[in-house]
Predict the 3D structure of the following.
Amino acid sequence: MRMAQASRAAGISLAGLTKSYDGTVVIPELSAEMAGGEFTVILGPSGCGKSTLLNMIAGLEPVSGGTIRFGEREVQDLEPKHRGCAMVFQNYALYPHMSVFRNIAYSLKVAGLSEVEQSERVGRVAKMLGLTDLLDRKPSQLSGGQRQRVAIGRAIVREPSVLLFDEPLSNLDAQLRHDMRIELAELHRRIGATTVFVTHDQVEAMTLADRILVLNKGRIEQFDTPREIYHRPASEFVARFIGAPPMNILSVTGNGTGLRVPDGPLLVPSSRRGDFRLGIRPEDVTLGARLPDGIPVTLVHREDLGSHNVVTVRLDGGAELRVTLPFGSDLDESRHLFIVLPRHRLHLFEPGSGRAIRNAFEDIGARKEEHV
Ligand SMILES: Nc1ncnc2c1ncn2[C@@H]1O[C@H](COP(=O)(O)OP(=O)(O)OP(=O)(O)O)[C@@H](O)[C@H]1O
Ligand SMILES: [Mg+2]
């Protein structure tokens, strides 16, 4: 059976999907739509259900309820091999006794393609992945990155319309991860398969995804573009999960005129009353010695990371904030230091649910920030 061509990649539709193991609920109920050809990254902490969700899409794990569609086709009751998808795992188990060529060609052979067709297809995939000169080698004669490329070749050789990855880069060193990330983005542009990629690495998520699905305890916290996820996190969970160093989050109380930390200074004017969580990213804080309207702080710690500095400062009352400063910014540490928190860069969250309160500072005339 010929697989659907990549140019007509099917979208994925998950509707009311649930999953429990022996009464333990892992996915309470999840619905999401991924467009044909879209690159979705599922991001979340260990144990949140990323692999479970991917395995249900692949057909390696039965669903407890709900439907999975590839295009118009309902696939949740189909065998993996009848779904038209392929998966790459973290532990890319290659057949050790087979050559690279045979490893990649294996599924084509099983599908009954002729030797000529196998050679033609494997040749094309090998060229795409830079494996042409390695086709006669055994897996043991390859580097980690080359093995991972063979695993990817094995997945894409059948031209699946849906391509699934479960942490495929986790076993590689930092440089190789970076190189493979660029290769994967390039590969996706060329083959256009609808791709779902699981990771807990936020850099992979930010750089590869058309949209990131942030998963927390089997629930979707937010499913949006990397830019929206970064600049307009829907919850404190998302805000903390993306960004390094992570967003500063302070417990604050509103008295009707402003928000302040307990026993600390006024941080921002606001007519709100009650307890909130106030967030600001380290790069959005202004820090300096000559900020007349600034909030006084003391310097706690300074880390020089070469390209930038991460400075920890303390407010009256004890709360601490991290601030990133670009390389070369001169900070006169002998002077009294101040911070300014630009209103249009602040995030406000409900203390209980953690949900973001949108446009929280509009009532005091803050310019509405549009991230385009
Ligand atoms: N076969 C199983 N039986 C019972 N519980 C399971 C089974 N497989 C997974 N789980 C549980 O389901 C939850 C989600 O697991 P899953 O493997 O999907 O997490 P994950 O997000 O992929 O985590 P990681 O980042 O560590 O790979 C975990 O609490 C796990 O213990
Ligand atoms: Mg997993």
